[in-house]
Design goal:
mainly alpha; DNA polymerase, domain 1; hpI Integrase, Chain A; 2 strands; about 60% helix; DNA-binding; cell cycle; Tyrosine_recombinase_XerC/XerD; Integrase_catalytic; tyrosine-based site-specific recombinase activity
Amino acid sequence: MTSRHVERFLEMMVAERGASPRTIDAYGRDLADFAEHLGARAPEAATADDLRAYLAGLAAAAMTPRTMNRRLSALRQFFRFLFAEGTRADDPTATIDSPRLGRPLPKYLSEEEVERLLAAARRIEGARGLRAVALLEILYATGLRVSELVSLPLASVARDQPVLVVRGKGSKERMVPLSAPARDAARAWLTARAELLGGEAVARKNRWLFPSRSKEGHLTRDGFAKMLADVAAAAGVSPGKVSPHVLRHSFASHLLAHGADLRSVQQMLGHADISTTQIYTHVLDERLKSLVNRHHPLAGKG
């Protein structure tokens, strides 16, 4: 049985922080796993030693530091909530060190590989092809999260504006420039949008840019991922190398490679903290090395 304190915490995450259903589901599973570790004792009564023993068990089971950190993050927020509410007089996570993470570089495609994906999408006939091109052009032009992309409202492109207004994590809005090819692709898709829904009458009742017959009313994350895998195979790019998030990484990496500043990329990606965006500094490092090698008077000597 779920603890009432866990239920109150999850309700707070929705009401006060605008957490998505996926986030709530992940937190619920993480807290349930911790409760199972404790056995008969309630999670809200756990001690710092209980937390250390739990993390040691995860490490012994060869769980990655990144996943362990995610679970510890859920526990930290839970116990901070209990402390703030006065349910506990202390926060047992305050003395717990986070598992050390490596610094994996983000996976991204080359510009040539992105062009091959777009070319393969353009070869798809009919409305499905126009939708595929619009999805890829908008994603690569904006770096949207896949959840933001598939849930774009029809109104976001209805007036052919040069920017998209995106509602991201925590219901925060941001403006992202929309390139001319992406706007062209969106206009072309709008001419065929009704075809996939079975006619104009049905399409007018659907408020999403990329509608579907799913319960959400719009294209699902899984539906887009499958379409992307098919396009990758047709483009001769390994489907295992391509994902919506890899295209988001490609957007950021290619922007920086062509001279964009990190703060602008942070704003376009919707990162609350620039430290999140700093995973892309490897691109800046490579660009600086290239500049030095090409232009420094001593670079060709020795």
